[in-house]
Amino acid sequence: MVKDPRRRQTSPPPSSALGASRPTGLMEAAPELAALRGRRVVLGVTGGIAAYKAVEICRRLVDAGAHVIPVLTEDALRFVGALTFSALASEPARTSLFTGSEGGEPIPHTRLGQTADLVVIAPATAKLLGKYAAGISDDLLTATLLATRAPVLVAPAMHSEMWEHAAVQENLATLRRRGVHVVEPASGRLAGGDLGEGRLAEPAVVVAAGADVLGRGGDLAGVRVLVTAGGTREAIDPVRFIGNRSSGKMGHAIADAAARRGAAVTLVTTTDRLAPPGADVVRVTTAEELHDAVLGRFAEQDVVVMAAAVADFRPKVSAPEKMKKRDGVPDLHLEPTPDVLAALGARKEHQILVGFAAETERVHEHAAATLTSKHVDLMVANDVSARDAGFEVDTNRATLLDSRGGIEEVPLLSKLALADVILDRIRIALTQTA
Length: 434
Ligand code: CTP
Fold this sequence. Notes:
Elements lengths: L39 E6 L5 H13 L3 E6 L9 H7 L19 H8 L2 E7 L1 H9 L5 H8 L4 E5 L3 H5 L1 H12 L3 E2 L3 E4 L5 E5 L3 H13 L8 E6 L4 E2 L5 E2 L6 H12 L3 E6 L10 E4 L3 H11 L5 E4 L6 E3 L18 E3 L3 H8 L4 E8 L3 H11 L4 E6 L11 E8 L4 E8 H19 L1
Parallel strand pairs: 1-2, 1-3, 3-4, 4-5, 8-11, 8-13, 11-12, 13-16, 16-17
Antiparallel strand pairs: 6-7, 9-10, 14-15, 17-18, 18-19
Helix pairs in contact: 1-8, 3-5, 4-7, 9-13
The site of cytidine-5'-triphosphate has 14 residues, from helix 11, strand 16 and helix 12.
């Protein structure tokens, strides 16, 4: 008997991210679907009439060479049978948080979430979008969604009235801001013979969108990217310093996204946040240390992203012992720190330079001035006085200004999603200078 590679395997192969992949599907996949080959895809199916189309999505993913693990909600089982998916997918369909596949796994959602390269939810009902946006995890699929760090693609399908409801649209906006990818529904015939928007996108469109999301995985392969993150601290005495409110979230998000997209990442950071696996990490504290770390590595970089908030001034002298109150109010004399970005701009050759402008007024004007004076290729400007942008929060609303005079307003996004937008622009700049 010839073994069908699409059939279940007794133990799932490791994620391609962990270094191995399964044999490809039976058919040679279309080149535009090549990114799916050997990747672990969790296919979530929720309870809508369009669930029958998920069968076709499952088959197409398998044909493209993906290792597909179907997860069906209880409501989905009212529309389609688990057996249909088990017969077509790479592993038996899973339906419960508490009973795994053969043999039973105690915590299937964490394992599924951790080992997935991509999670596709098709169809995604209004209920699923609401639970996902609210962080509710009351079944295997929603628990997997919270446990995974893989990209997630949702393909909503519902009646037009539900699709247009503010609650659904706001949930979707929340998910987009967190970096979730969305395949918009199409217009056409809906359940019960109605016509309108809300029909699940065609299976081929959903599968192509999945390949597109994964394809971004390697578009910066071979590019050397140095990112600075956090805020520098300038010592006044051994316990006090001049600092700023930068949390390092934006810089780390750029480093994470660049690593995910295949870049060789050097991360110069003032924080102890987790760095992406494989990154060369340099921990620094002061502007001087950051200057030396970046300048010393500049020649071997293709891109430098200066997301760190570097102190402009430091105490001329840092007291060797803790200053005492009884000695009176200290006289702090400040001096300028080296301007790292300006130094890079003055000596750049082939490198793409990206600067950040954290401003509280006349944001564009200041960013445009820095772009010119420091010879920067791309400035990311944001108003740090806004509640949902800038320091410490997880979202950012930015304006991108480039050296060719281009200005792009980016809507409120998660810092991770904004990181991808910035990297898209960097990739274009790299092809223009190549
Ligand atoms: N920067 C730097 N070295 C410094 C100060 C800032 O490399 N000593 C970098 C930041 O990382 C950021 C950009 O320069 O990418 C910000 O430049 P700019 O808009 O000119 O801000 P400031 O230098 O803070 O200038 P100002 O105080 O006049 O707003």
